[in-house]
Fold ABC transporter ATP-binding protein.
Amino acid sequence: MKPLLKLTDVNSYYGKIHALNNINLEINEGEIVALLGSNGAGKSTTLKTISGLIKPKSGSIEWNGKSIVGAPVHKIVESGIIHVPEGRRIFSGLTVTENLELGGFTYRKDKKWVKEGIERSFDLFPRLKERAKQLAGTLSGGEQQMVAISRGLMANPKLLMLDEPSMGLAPIIVQEIMRIIREINKQGTTILLIEQNAKAALRLANRGYLIEIGNIVMHDTAEVLREDDKIIKAYLGA
Ligand code: ATP
């Protein structure tokens, strides 16, 4: 089976800073893949490179067998790749529903389609339905993260890339977010998950990649990574 997304020898830079060094990564349809690594390792840069925000200097990125290197961001979005960035950039002065509407309309100017997207989100996050008219800025951190994920889902993505969805959240909320990510995956969306919380990520993922200073240093099934000494010592807090 061909991978849904395949990065081959991808190199990305910020000026002279070589942030990604010959990255090779594959994601198959239906998988949850975790991208692990400490601060500054290159996780966000990997997502930005896939979503077209950063153009790699060399290497190939194939999506459904076609190159997307150099494609405009909106084309990449239209092709089904959605990136939910770190830090839940939601509109705090707008209600939950307005945030989702705005998200939906950036993808497609179709009222019925947007309405259906919001209903899907509310099925997935009943807590957001209860808070539909509440200003997003007054929500808890976990609820704001739910809005950010829901907004990404408005596009009906094939691949949802989540950058640190658990950041700053209490453990019980992290569990809930992880449960919802599993549910999104069950409903047919492939997931690329960036996490510093390796424990939570490896519980959820099928496979994982470990990135250190711009290099993929390990990749395997989540089962194997959970038992790996280096991962345990450096990332699982043992
Ligand atoms: P974090 O979780 O801290 O965001 P990360 O693994 O996502 O970590 P990246 O944000 O991808 O790391 O950063 C990779 C490297 O690129 C780091 O050395 C970082 O300092 C550098 N970098 C990131 N963004 C920029 C930028 N806009 N300009 C210059 N260097 C950057």
Remarks:
- The pocket of adenosine-5'-triphosphate is lined by residues 14, 17, 19, 37, 39-45 (CB under 6 Å).
- The first helix runs from residue 43 to 50.
- Residues 37 and 211 are 5 Å apart (CA to CA).
